[in-house]
Write a sequence for this structure.
């Protein structure tokens, strides 16, 4: 196999033979003819199939990008093999189309499903093979797999004794998730998904398949682990390290209301959740509620899991967080895969196999990191803003544990020591007539502005690329926010590996700063 330098030189030479890359997009007919010549037969176009919109929308999780006026692709191609991906990419590239690669469609800004120039989607949903090696504790998985399917397969193959450190939403595609980091309930114990990447298979701009991107290709391997999606090629498969999980896990979930009570509880949470044993994960979901008397107040759900029995969980909370008042009735004891389903708000583990979310919404999201505990006054001020809108919410997710021990430059994902927790903000609405989009988004931006002096800067305001936010700015401004001090290295790698910026989206790592 050629080494990284050889591939890079080959790439530079071959790019010179593809002037069509910078030409205007070809017609859909010529693209279809190319696909047929190359025996890529599973595709749909707006005029050729009544299923086009259904295929487009199936993996588009943010319904904002299903509305009228949003750009649509010239074609959606659904390959089943790596060879078909290579052939499809050749037709897309030679026709001058922009490319969007879609794994699970969870881009918060719809960036895997939309573009500002004529584009084609290569949707990897049909590439979802899983090979679990229990003895050596790794899994090979194709990029079209959803996390729920993957978790279920790992648990089934290992008799519920192995797991994977990744996110909580069952329908997230593995591809973009790993390239953005992949934070979840096991991250305080085992790091993010990107920390557990062992190898990847990547198709480059000229169609070459690098079968084993690993430590032998240190720059590209480093960038793939948290450097954001849409910049590094078409990743068709991943080899991920599996981790040990206990036979007994307790999921807990309890609700509290009242602005003052929640202010006190969340203030205390900041000194408990980030420093607790890494086997304990406690998150907080906060949203305004309307009481039976029609008065706005705050509600909060404290949820997570602990590696132990219900009795052990209750005893631990009584020791470190008695103010919360956790009881056995707030807990559900089971194995790891049952806890995974519970955290995803699913009734049973088999529901993890559903490839499409049972409910979707219109939403806008933002994120922050917090390195200095928020005062009660600051929390109360945020809640005052939140009580003006019952369609907005915040989630606090704790850091600490192993996350504080991994160097910020060990992989591209930079958010490590010093962070107490991460914040996700969302404004969510049921349909496009429920409330004006611009009012809800303006409210969210107001809350985000209020939080500005309270959160982490490195030196730009630190945000999470998997909660991608076009408000952060262009690719340079966004890169500094998403990747901090790692951004400069990512730009150098991008300039060497993809100097013509063939793989790009509005906030992907650019070739220069």
């Amino acid at each position: 196999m050629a080494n990284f330098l050889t591939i890079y030189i080959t790439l530079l030479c071959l790019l010179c033979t593809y002037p069509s890359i910078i030409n205007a997009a070809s017609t859909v007919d010529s693209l279809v003819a190319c696909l047929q010549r190359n025996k890529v037969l599973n595709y749909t176009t707006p005029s050729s199939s009544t299923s086009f919109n259904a295929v487009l929308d199936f993996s588009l999780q943010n319904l904002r990008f299903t509305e009228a006026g949003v750009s649509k692709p010239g074609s959606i191609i659904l390959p089943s093999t790596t060879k078909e991906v290579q052939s499809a990419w050749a037709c897309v590239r030679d026709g001058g189309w922009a490319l969007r690669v879609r794994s699970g469609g969870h881009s918060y800004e719809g960036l895997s499903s939309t573009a500002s120039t004529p584009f084609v989607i290569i949707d990897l949903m049909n590439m979802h093979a899983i090979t679990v090696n229990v003895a050596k504790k790794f899994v090979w998985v194709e990029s079209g797999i959803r996390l729920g399917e993957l978790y279920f397969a790992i648990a089934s193959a290992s008799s519920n004794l192995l797991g994977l450190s990744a996110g909580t939403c069952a329908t997230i595609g593995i591809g973009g998730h790993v390239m953005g980091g992949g934070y979840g309930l096991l991250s305080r114990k085992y790091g993010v998904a990107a920390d557990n990447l062992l190898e990847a298979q990547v198709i480059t701009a000229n169609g070459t398949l690098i079968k084993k991107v690993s430590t032998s290709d240190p720059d590209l391997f480093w960038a793939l682990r948290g450097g954001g999606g849409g910049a590094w090629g078409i990743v068709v498969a991943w080899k991920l390290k599996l981790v040990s999980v206990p036979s007994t896990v307790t999921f807990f979930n309890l609700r509290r209301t009242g602005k003052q009570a929640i202010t006190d509880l969340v203030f205390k949470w900041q000194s408990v959740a980030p420093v607790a044993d890494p086997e304990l994960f406690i998150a907080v979901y906060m949203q305004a509620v309307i009481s039976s008397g029609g008065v706005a107040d705050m509600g909060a759900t404290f949820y997570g899991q602990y590696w132990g029995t219900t009795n052990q969980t209750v005893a631990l909370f009584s020791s470190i967080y008695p103010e919360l008042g956790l009881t056995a009735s707030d807990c559900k004891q089971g194995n790891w895969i049952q806890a995974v389903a519970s955290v995803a708000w699913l009734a049973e583990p088999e529901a993890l196999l559903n490839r499409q979310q049972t409910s979707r919404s219109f939403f806008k999201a933002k994120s922050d990191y917090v390195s200095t505990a928020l005062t009660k006054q600051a929390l109360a001020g945020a809640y005052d803003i939140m009580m003006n809108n019952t369609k907005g919410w915040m989630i606090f997710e704790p850091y600490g544990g192993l996350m504080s021990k991994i160097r910020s430059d060990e992989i591209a994902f930079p958010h490590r020591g010093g962070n107490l927790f991460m914040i996700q903000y969302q404004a969510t609405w049921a349909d496009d007539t429920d409330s004006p989009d611009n009012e809800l988004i303006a409210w969210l931006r107001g809350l985000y502005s209020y939080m500005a002096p309270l959160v982490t800067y490195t030196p730009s305001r630190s945000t999470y690329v998997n909660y991608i936010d076009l408000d952060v700015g262009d690719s340079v401004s966004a890169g500094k926010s998403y990747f901090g001090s790692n951004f400069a290295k990512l730009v150098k790698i991008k300039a060497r590996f993809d100097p013509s910026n063939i793989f790009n989206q509005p906030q992907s790592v650019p070739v220069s700063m």
